[in-house]
Amino acid sequence: MNFYQTVEGINKISFGDMIPTETILQKRFVKTDSFMVPGVIQKSEKRFTWKLDLNDDDVIYGLGQNVRGMNKRGFVYESFCSDDPNHTPDKKSLYGAHNFFVVLSDKPWGIYIDFAGKVTFDIGFEHKDVLKIEVEGIDFDAYVFTGTYKQIVNQFRSLIGQSYVPPKWGFGYQQSRWSYVDQEEVLSIADKFDEHDLPCDAIYLDIDYMERFKDFTVSEERFPAFQSFVTDMKSREIKLIPIIDAGVKIESGYDVYEEGVKNDYFCNDASGHPFVAAVWPGKVHFPDFFNSQVRKWFGQKYHHLLNMGIEGFWNDMNEPAIFYSEQGLKDAISFVNSQAGKNLDIYTFFDLKDKILNISNSEVDYKSMYHNYDGVKVNHYDVHNLFGYFMTRAAAEGFEDYAPDKRHFMITRASHIGMAKHSGIWTGDNHSWWEHLKLNIQMMPGLGMAGFLYSGADTGGFGGEASGELLTRWLQFSIFTPLLRNHSALGTRKQEPWMFETETLDRIRDVVKMRYALIPYLYSEFMKANFNHELLFAPLSYEYDDLRSKQVEDQLLLGDSLMLAPVYEQNSRGRSVYLPEKMVLWKVTAFEHLNEEAFELMEEGYHFVDVALNEIPLYLKPGKLVVLTKPENRVSNLDESNLVVVGYVPNKAIYELYNDDGLTKGYKSGDSLKTMLKVDRHKNEYQISVDTNDMALKSITFYLIDDNGKWHVIKQNAIMDESHYV
Ligand code: GLC
Asked: CA geometry: angle at 207 spanning 203 and 210, to 5°?
């Protein structure tokens, strides 16, 4: 074991010589004397087991994308990127591998396990007072953090670096479906958004836009003039976002396949031949993204679509998903054949059934595939969790080569900590189940802890059938998630807003418009969470240290000023809410309906709050402000020079509004617009000051609620001067 430390006191323990994961900015660590490692560590030939004590009241947050509640205590979780469309509570892993958690104890602590293979976390399951980490390998690094919950998140996130920032249009509403099959259909979807006065900034192209599911091709039959189509859509301010899958179709004459074979760019089997799997295109090879030359080659392939005007992508099936491997299928068929005509006993029958049912994503297949990790041969199973990360890294590096200062849109399915600097994520193939709306709510803080600030779920649910009520309630939550995408699977009920009754469509219009109204606040909080290594979505105990806050599982803090308590149950017209302090409830129906009656002062403690189907309940924290603007149907049309501020201000409030050009990476070198809003209440009068370097800012209308629940409307017509901004 080797011991390291940063000046901030973050401890790192190196167990052996780990395979690099590219997650931590190593340079900040210096070697130090050994220190006390918490808990008990046992090493066997092939694995490490680390046991740590838990106290009765400890609450555990983290593990990013996984099943179950915000407090992870009481179950066993795995980090092993999995292509599994049934996110039921008995599952142990989803698409991401996020080995970071925080234990909220009297003296909070946190651990990150930096390891590319499978890790299991038994969090008080086998024994209620023991947290057991099992690492399937003996070479890994562990980081141990102490401080408050907020400080630990801050330390960890500062180690993994700044997160991916999408272009600002990525904060708009996005419509997807597997699939809008041709140009006419995509066009008619765009037209419907405009006809129905619904905001929309992007439409996704799922696998059917390609020619026989071949990456970087476009079907000439279904999209005969792709480039001009992309341009036409862009002139309407609608971006098209094509999918790219991990598997490359085996087809002679197909350039990506031919080049890959010629240059030995694909993952191999044990005998050194390209590994054969099957995904959407039928038989495929997987590019070996562990090899930097391959990443460079694959990254350049995106240029073909970028040249046609495309500005963003979604990378999919990159766990990697394997429907079957050539060998796996052969073995299963020969087993089935060997049983033909026999009088099967029940156990052999179950074996036979399992052989077929377990053919996809099998451990045997993952163990039969090899990478050339920049010269070193590694078995896929040992580095499984990095595959999707490195595919997306290839894309991000390709974008960087193409236009270094431009922000490209990128979301991906499989992920690992460290990937957050390259891309956002969507949370994969959920269902149109109310339970998955709740899972979406509960997963957001963990994703942020792992650095995935730009994230969101398939709103309305991917599999299964969504009702109008489910879609409405889901949107009432998703309008706060940075990625806001409605996506649904082939064969399910169509989920575009106009597929429901007029009443539902009208409600959805108000909800989505409210998203656009909130963009000044959401974008500002997103960027600040990124710069300051903070959470955008947080459990209440991120800010409040009372015991009750620790128990709340279905409310979230959103940035500095808001608390959310979404409705996530069928037919519910209200819910219980815990307020850790006095707040103002704002029942939003539509941006235009901003009136005094919509606000209600609420005391600290428990409440039952009625929430009609057209209401979005927002809780305003005291002394904080929310900045909005009049909604438009595209992000680029938002008027950010005339703003609206809403706040509950008993005495004083300060808010720094962040903005920038939304398109370039200038934000990295401080190219930004900042506006400092200060409100003071003196002798029943509000005094307001606005300092800004945003020369375009013209007016701000303040709606301030005082401690008697009375509101005050003050319009500030300011001429602002750069020199005022400090
Ligand atoms: C995967 C993706 C899903 C997509 C489908 C077809 O299941 O997770 O979003 O629609 O593949 O490409």
From this structure: 100
Distance 666 CA to ligand 1 centre (A): 33
Residue of the nearest CA to atom 3 in ligand 1? 429
Q: What is the tens place of the pLDDT at every residue in 584-594?
A: 999 999 999 99
Cα(636)–Cα(647) distance, integer angstroms:
26
CB 68 within 8 A of CB 92: no
DSSP assignment of 372-389, as one string? EETTEEEEHHHHGGGHHH
Best residue among 176, 317, 495 to mutate for probing ligand 1's pocket (most ligand atoms within 8 Å of CB) is 317
CA-to-CA distance for 111 and 152, rounded, in angstroms? 9
Distances (CA, A) of 725 to 80, 176, 676: 48, 42, 7
> CA-to-CA distance for 637 and 641, rounded, in angstroms?
11
- Are 225 and 219 in contact by the 8 Å Cβ rule? The answer is no
- Model's pTM, two decimal places? 0.97
Q: Please name the residue whose Cα sits nearest to atom 5 of ligand 1.
A: 178
Q: Is the CB of 260 under 6 A from ligand 1?
A: no
* Cα–Cα dist 548/531, whole Å: 30
Strand pairing category for 277-279 and 173-175: unpaired
- In 3D space, the residue among 615, 639, 617, 599 whose CA is nearest the CA of residue 516 turns out to be 639
Of 340, 341, 334, 381, give the one whose Cα is nearest residue 355.
334
Q: For ligand 1, what atom is nearest to the CA of residue 85?
A: 7
Question: CB within 8 A of 1, min separation 6: which ones?
Answer: 13, 14, 15, 34, 37
**Ligand 1 atom nearest 489 alpha carbon:** 10
Q: Are strands 673-682 and 652-659 parallel, antiparallel or unpaired?
A: antiparallel
Model pLDDT for residues 349-405, shown as the tens digit of each residue:
999 999 999 999 999 999 999 999 999 999 999 999 999 999 999 999 999 999 999
**Mean per-residue pLDDT, 187-206:** 98
- How many Å lie between the centroid of ligand 1 and the Cα of residue 576? 36
Q: What's the residue count for the chain?
A: 726
With a 6 Å cutoff on the Cβ, whether 281 touches ligand 1 is no
- Residue 279's DSSP bridge partners are 282
Element (H, E) at 183: helix 183-195
| pLDDT tens sequence across 113-138 | 999 999 999 999 999 999 999 999 99
Q: Return the residue matching tokens 């710069």.
A: 531
Q: Which domains does the chain have, with CATH numbers?
A: 2-160 (2.60.40.1760), 525-725 (2.60.40.4040)
Q: Known catalytic residues?
A: 316, 319, 429
